[in-house]
Amino acid sequence: MQSMAFWWDASLGQFIFPGWNVVSLGGFIGVCILLICLAVFYEILKVHHIFIRLQGLRRSHTVSPRTQCAPPSGESDTLLTEHAVVFGSPHARKVIQLCKEALVFLFHTTLGYFLMLAVMMYNGYVFLTVVSALTLAYFFLGHISMRLHMEHIRARHLTIRCSPRCPSETRSPETPHDSTPGTSGNDDGTQSTSPGSPSRNKIQVVAEEIASRI
Length: 214
Known about the structure:
- By secondary structure, the chain is mostly helical.
- It has helices at residues 25-68, 90-119, 124-156, 198-213, and strands at residues 13-14, 21-22, 183-185, 191-193.
- A hairpin with a 6-residue loop joins strand 1 (13-14) and strand 2.
- Helix 1 (25-68) runs antiparallel to helix 2 (90-119) and helix 1 packs parallel to helix 3 (124-156).
């Protein structure tokens, strides 16, 4: 039965797979170098997974809002509203995006369980190698992962504001009666025309033409 306590020896014996025997110092150093590379690659896959999801959100915001709404006048287009050449239907692009995310998740999870199996050998040197490599990789890639996380949150909660040129805003807001120049509202809901208003002058011209014809 395998010991459930840490032990410190460079001779690992059978390592994870049958036939992979590590009995020399050179083999042990090679295993440690392999675990360091896999731990760094594990963190890289974590960052890459977030980047793929953020790229999919950017592409969806680039396609859908742009075709429905024009940017407000006086505002420059952002990265999420730039023109992009996109091929295929939206459903096909969504399936391809999900396949990419699932593939990266598959490699990331498999690699994580492989590192877990290596640590579960309870060899102290292997444990320190894996933990140190993960810590070093996070030291160099952690800020990138955090920045991509923040951009992903902002992209998910992005609100697209339509300009007056959008089809959804073709109806103009109703103008209050008391804000029209030359008119004033009465208490009974009728409007009175001021003497110097354009509508009053038009009425006078029409009345003079009728009187001249009579």
